[in-house]
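ok so i was messing around last nite and threw this chain in just to see what happens. nothing serious, just curious
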Amino acid sequence: MSETRRLAWRKAALTFSFGYGLLRLYWAAGGRWGWTACDRTDPPTAVESATGCGADQVSDLPFLQGWGAVLLSGLLVATAVLAVRRPGRLVSVASGTAAVALVVLAFPAHLLFQVPAGLAGRPTDWRDVAGRLLLLTGGLLFGAVATARARCTHRLPEGPRAVPSWVRRWAYAACLVPVLGFSVPHALWLAGVPFGISAELIHAAEDDLSWTVGLSITLAPLAGGLLTLGLAQRWGQVFPHWLPVLGGHRVPRALALVPATVVALALIAYGLIGIWVVASALAAGTTRWSELAEGWLAAGTVLVFLAWGCCLAVATYGYRLVTVPVCAACDPSPAERRPVRAG
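result:
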């Protein structure tokens, strides 16, 4: 990447940090435009969605949502300023940490279900959606700052590189886990088959979700799982020849690494938060083990997301090792100079 483009990413991250910090300062000072009081774990009604669950009636915000968030935004601004003025390895690490934090807070895995449901007509808290998308944008910007590096101007070997067997195994696992653990059960439930779930819950889901929303929820993990195979296949490194214009050209690493990393972090966060919520409900007595046993497959979805995220994270790391540019003329690091074995 040229120095001009790297500087552009840093300035974009700085602009985001200032803008997001001002928004948080506005909310902490009492403004409520764009802020929502709705509980993310409890789907709002149409009236609640329109008013942000009475956001205008909330006088004071909790510390973490108010002045605490302002302080954290200040850290983002400081990191972005250092990235522009004094870029270096330490700033890259700080930018990467900021990117991970913003992506996790954005909870993008929930957006995969929230946005299609809202577009299909289900009551949706669009203030919350906008906030998540804003955080996700900031995470991607800081991720670009953290991973930006000088582009090698020397000619690199053409064609795909050999993929180690362990990367293939993790990529196949990252494909099968969501298909077998999520898409197949949801397809059965969509067809009215009470497998791993009670018939009452099936009827409740039919009343709550339309056929369009149910189908999109079922197919989204299936499509994501199939795309994961690109991390271990030829077409994940070189575009297939039958594609117009792009056919035969090398796949940009960021095109695979950025979405895969974001989704992996989101899935892991979703799974961990889900486990914490279930454990808290069991400890508080609001949920009983018998209720979990009644819908054991639905309750196990959080474990599916966690396993999916872990498999995808390892496969993504393997893809990074396989596709890292190796050029002696650019004096790569010892880790990058080490050849990747195929077996």
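not much to say yet. Residues 331-343 have pLDDT under 50 and may be disordered.
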